[in-house]
Amino acid sequence: MAALDGNSVEAAAIDPIPTLARQVMEQLRRDILEGAHPPGGRLRIESLRERYGAGASPIREALSQLAAEGLVLRVDQRGFRVALADSAMLRDLIETRCLVETAALRASIARGDAAWEEQVLVSHHRLARTPRSADPGRFLPNPEWEAHHRAFHLALLDGCGARALLAFCADLQDRALRFRYLSNQVAWPQRDVGAEHKAICEAAIGRQADEACALLEAHYRRTGHFLSAAAPREDLPTGQGPST
Amino acid sequence: MAALDGNSVEAAAIDPIPTLARQVMEQLRRDILEGAHPPGGRLRIESLRERYGAGASPIREALSQLAAEGLVLRVDQRGFRVALADSAMLRDLIETRCLVETAALRASIARGDAAWEEQVLVSHHRLARTPRSADPGRFLPNPEWEAHHRAFHLALLDGCGARALLAFCADLQDRALRFRYLSNQVAWPQRDVGAEHKAICEAAIGRQADEACALLEAHYRRTGHFLSAAAPREDLPTGQGPST
DNA sequence: GGCGGTAGTTTTGTCGATAAAAACTCTCCC
DNA sequence: GGGAGAGTTTTTATCGACAAAACTACCGCC
């Protein structure tokens, strides 16, 4: 997931036996992304200790990392809870992505070399030939498609030549992924995302900055629209018993 | 420092007795920013345990958080070390800031309301009336100036209406601050940063998007130029005894 | 003389226990 | 009947100890 994070990339690649804390963190992240722990829900150390079969230290460490990543919320002396995922946050996320990623895309288009162009092309090709759903009949998330989708969007921006910016974009994409997971079964197959990706790819390679940015922005805003329409029930799932 | 981080803000504001891990983290961050631990240097748990008077758990937790923040580098099973701060990273940081913050500034100028305008004005005023150096004779970092400086730059972008973006900008500013600390005594008083801030402020309030962005970008690039010129010796301080 | 393997030392990652803090509950009083 | 308060229970934050892994230094061998 956070494969672009400079800290983890080399260690994860070499080490065959990741540290326990890392295993817990990755499993926990998957569980949160997939909604096993509901947004706003408490994450008690003891429960997690039991569920993931580890001592308190690795659990706590995993939670700390996820907290810094924004997926988990920590309150000193009052434990951890799953980060909220309400429609206000979704709006904010979309807004941020539109602002940041169009800037990055513009820079990519202006500065990207031949290698960038080729990478955009090939990553789009891989995405295009992968079915979005693992099941042709109904929607079932296809991990391969998710990976290619992520790679394509990052490849688009990779020409900008700013690693810190790219890492942030990768992070934003992860956050967006969470919303997609939470409201499963979204906009499929009503919407032809393949065509949208194709148009973005062509505009980018054709160095049509304005058009590419407009398409990308529309792409994100449309996704946001579908998501907030599809999952209004998740808006304020926190509750969790106020003091009274 | 990371006062904009949603996780810490409320806890830190209320809790009079912060958790030990938090204390260690904040002190450690300050020490790293100020160069007490050199970039690339190892951070052994035992040494830190001794230095900060805490057990291994809080130390490890503080390191985890700083690692996620980018100030500390973690390698599984091989401990922690201070993140590098070479000129390539500085370049990358500047590039990222220029791309992201001009986008944010543009959005701020387009969307910012009266409250935003006033906040920019007042934060600039506070900055302008605070001396940059705590000592009139030579350069000595003035914490008050630093705080106002940070507030001014964030106020500029605060009109964009995207909290996630703003949080990222705050993070970028912290990273930049580190470079400033590392190469102490920089460009003072050769450079009139006050005038630069004033010009940016006026262009922003006057809704001159293009000019404000150009000024902001020049502001950052100039800083980068000074920093990399002032601290060439820090370029590759890692070394740390290769295998031979 | 250089290199590979091996024993010893350091350092990390993990565990279980413990003290402190928060949350909850139940009772008593108005 | 409602609310405040004391006691109990849950939960967190921290510590010290231990096992596993990495690093170091040494020794023998080619």
Automatic annotation (TrEMBL), chains A, B:
Keyword Nucleotide-binding attached: no
Key words, A-Z: DNA-binding, Transcription, Transcription regulation
Domain HTH gntR-type residue range list: 18-85
DNA damage is among the record's keywords: no
Gene3D superfamilies reported in the protein's UniProt record: GntR ligand-binding domain-like, Winged helix-like DNA-binding domain superfamily/Winged helix DNA-binding domain
Annotated protein name in UniProt: FCD domain-containing protein
Species of the source: Belnapia mucosa
